[in-house]
Every structure is written in C-alpha cells, then in structure tokens.
Specification:
With 430 residues, this protein is α+β, with helices and mostly antiparallel strands. It has one domain: Beta-lactamase. The chain is 30% helix and 17% strand. The protein contains eleven helices and 15 strands. The strands form five sheets. It has a five-stranded antiparallel β-sheet with strand order 2-1-14-13-12, sandwiched between helices. Helix 5 packs across helix 6. The longest helix is centred in the C-terminal third of the chain and has 22 residues.
Length: 430
C-alpha cells in the first residue's frame, strides 16, 4: 500500500507539473523592462486575463536559412480561449488545399462559385457585388477574411470544405486539440453538421463542377468542459447567472495557431505532415492578403478611414497608431469575441532588416458577464497588445545578429487604390 501511495503521489506531481503554464525566464526579464501601467497590470495577473504569449526568434545562417527559437509566457495549450476569427486562417488553407485535390484545371481559386441551400438554416449566395467579377470565389473569400476579418467569407469557406473534412484534415496534420464546429451565424449543432451544395461556373454561367451537400457523422470529443464567466445574456437578452459554456465551440490552441501561420510563411520549417497542399501561386496570394492594407485594395473597396492600415495589426495598433512604421509589413491573422483578443503575426522590417514572430491571446471582461458587449478591448486589450508588440519589436531592433536576413521573398507588389467613383465598403460583419 505504501508503494502504491508513493506511485500515485508521483503521478499526481507529474500531472500537476505538466498542467502548469509554460513560462521562460527570458520573457519575464524582458517584460519587466516595460513600465506601461496597462502592460504591467496584465503581465502581473496572467491568470485573470487568461494571458498566453509565444515569441519566436528567427536567426539566419550565411545562406539565409532560418532557425526558430520559441519563448513562452504562461502558455498552456489545454487552457481554453475563444479563437474567434483566427480560425479563418486554417479555413483559407483548407479551401485552397481542397481545390488542389480536386485536380480540375478549370476550377481554381479565382473561378466563380455559387452556394445553394439544402438544409434548415442554410442560405444561398449566387453573387458578390464586392468582387470585380460580381461572383464569389475562394480567392475573394480569402482576401475579405484576411483584410478585415469578414465573417461571411469564413462561413462560405466552411461550407465549401465541409465540417468533416475540416476536422479530419487538421487532426491528420497534427492539430489534434483543434476543432471547428460551426459557422459564424446562429445555427444549431445539427445544422452546422450539414453544409451547402456548391457549384463552380464559367463566365457565361454554365456549370464547371457541382459539389453536393455534405453531412458530418463524426463525433466530437467534448469530454473537457470549458465554462467561463459568472453569467451571460441569452438570445432574449435576459441575464443567466451561470458560466457561459464554450465546450462545443471552436477551439484553436495558441501553439497550433502559431504553427499554422509558420507553415504558410516558412513551409520547410515544419514537418511535411503538417504542411498544407498548396501551390506557389497559393503561397503568393496568402502572403499578399495576410499583409496587404484594406486601403490598398480595389475589390472590395474598403473605406480607408474606418479600415485603416493597422486595423487588424494588433501589435502595431492602439488609439494613436493607425499606420505601421516605415518599411514594416505584418503578415498575420487576428480574432476578437466574447472578451478574447488574439493575434499571431510575422513581422518583417525591410528598412532595418529585422524579422520575428509573435502570438498572443488575452481575455478582458471585468464584469465577467458574456454577450453584454461590455469588454475592455479599447482600454486594456489594444493597449496591452500594442505594448507587447513594441516591447518585442524594440528588442529585435537592438538585438545583435550574426547575419542580417534577406527579406526579399516577403517584399510583394500590392494593389494601388483606383478612384473610380464607387462607394466604399463600411461596417463589415467581423
């Protein structure tokens, strides 16, 4: 009995150690140098703010080949946060991968497509007035999802790929703790298992390829219960005094998010099994729209005042900063919902020849009531993420390197806004 007790005690200690969030002393020391009051508040209370940070240092050898060193602050891949729009990144990659697997030369990411309805809750989409062709396409969805985090674009990519394929593909690539269970419209779990019939068409409207409606019979693993807060407003705006249940919602741990972005930017840096089946043209499109500013874009013609350069570049955005430093581009995806705010970025400074990756998530909901739209995004989340970004950026500007990176691969030709009299697009649902 004594030996059994010792064994169980050691197992408990091992489990407890494994359950502790991972923090590296390097980041603790670096963050201690930033005196900003909001930054200090969040850093000193990581549990309250459900804070997780991954900083990836990139070093180049004499042949410009990169090596990556990850540093963690309070990172626990089992700790739930709502991923919100961050899941638009893997959906874009899976949409391109599915097109390539179709192996139909006439059906590309630029081909016009239409969505029909075949089950309760589904909606049609035959036209898209924000695209140059007037029709939806995978390339146009990706552009909208990345530039301003458009929700409809995500839901349509979800419908094209299908719930079963999404989750099986991500799990096969090693993202076992990731799940994508729903569109960004209010539907039941059963309705989200059903996805629409889709067709690709020629410019004259004739059919190229028809995809039938799909259903996902696979079971999800909901054994881990994830409840947050002390209350929430229900669909009737009535207060329910119990935690909000995220158990069946989308889940995308921060290390998986960071690794997905790295697989796009540096495909050879991740195992072949984790890469997505993408063409050189796919990579060019992804890099362009991960970094292009809304105001540089013609279709959709986003209102540049509302959707300014740093609108979805959280590590370079606060109430005073609407533009990025000269020579800097950020390749990233963000998400915000239910008080959670998340960003995973690759930062390239072409002027100073500096690069790094940074991913972070935090939760700002002082009253612990969800769905009341009373979150401290502007007073806490944005200032904190800006200060975090600047802390790492300033460190990188002063860090000594044996070899400065050649960032030519990331210097892309962007669109130039044409003044053609069309009205600008405002108030996108994101």
């Amino acid at each position: 009995m004594y030996n059994l007790f010792c064994f169980l005690f050691l197992c408990l200690l091992t489990f407890s150690a494994q359950a502790q969030p991972r923090t590296d002393a390097f980041l603790v020391d670096l963050f201690a140098k930033n005196p900003h009051p909001v930054f200090r508040e969040v850093i000193q209370h990581p549990d309250k703010y459900r804070l997780q940070i991954i900083y990836t240092r990139i070093d180049r050898d004499s042949r410009n080949q990169p090596t990556f060193t990850d540093y963690f602050f309070h990172v626990d891949s089992t700790a739930y946060f709502n991923p919100a729009s961050t899941v638009k990144l893997p959906l874009a990659l899976l949409s391109l991968e599915k097109l390539n697997q179709l192996n139909r030369p006439e059906v590309t990411k630029y081909t016009a497509m239409q969505f029909d309805s075949a089950y309760r809750g589904q909606t049609r989409e035959w036209h898209d007035p924000t695209s140059e062709s007037g029709f939806p396409s995978i390339a146009h969805f990706i552009k909208k999802a990345f530039l301003v985090s458009d929700n409809d674009a995500y839901s349509r990519m979800y419908e094209f790929v299908g719930q079963q394929t999404i989750n099986r593909a991500l799990h096969a690539k090693g993202y076992r703790d990731t799940r994508i269970t729903h569109r960004f419209v209010r539907l039941t779990p059963e309705e989200n298992r059903h996805t629409n019939p889709v067709r690709f068409i020629r410019p004259d409207g004739s059919l190229l390829y028809a995809q039938p409606p799909a259903y996902n019979p696979d079971a999800f693993d909901f054994r881990r219960i994830d409840k947050i807060g002390k209350g929430y407003l229900n669909v009737r705006d009535s207060l329910v005094l119990e935690p909000f249940d995220f158990t069946t919602r989308n889940k995308y741990p921060l290390p998986a998010f960071q690794q997905t972005l790295q697989s796009v930017l540096f495909p050879r840096s991740v195992p072949a099994s984790q890469r997505f089946l993408l063409t050189d043209g796919d990579y060019r499109l992804l890099l362009q729209y991960l970094s292009q500013f809304p105001g540089e874009t013609n279709y959709p013609k986003y209102d540049a005042e509302q959707y300014y350069d740093s609108y979805v570049k959280f590590f370079f955005r606060d109430s005073l900063h609407r533009r990025l430093p000269e020579g800097v581009r950020v390749f990233n995806k963000v998400g915000w919902a239910y008080g959670f705010m998340t960003d995973a970025s690759y930062v390239a400074d072409f002027k100073n020849r500096v690069e790094f990756m940074l991913a972070a998530t935090l939760y700002v909901n002082e009253d612990e009531i969800l769905n009341d739209n009373r979150y401290e995004y502007e007073s806490v989340a944005h200032p904190f993420l800006y200060q975090l970004g600047q802390t790492i950026y300033q460190y990188e500007l002063n860090r000594k390197r044996k070899n400065r990176p050649d960032l030519t691969r990331f210097q892309l030709p962007y669109e130039k806004r044409r003044e053609d009299g069309r009205a600008t697009v405002r108030d996108v649902e994101n």
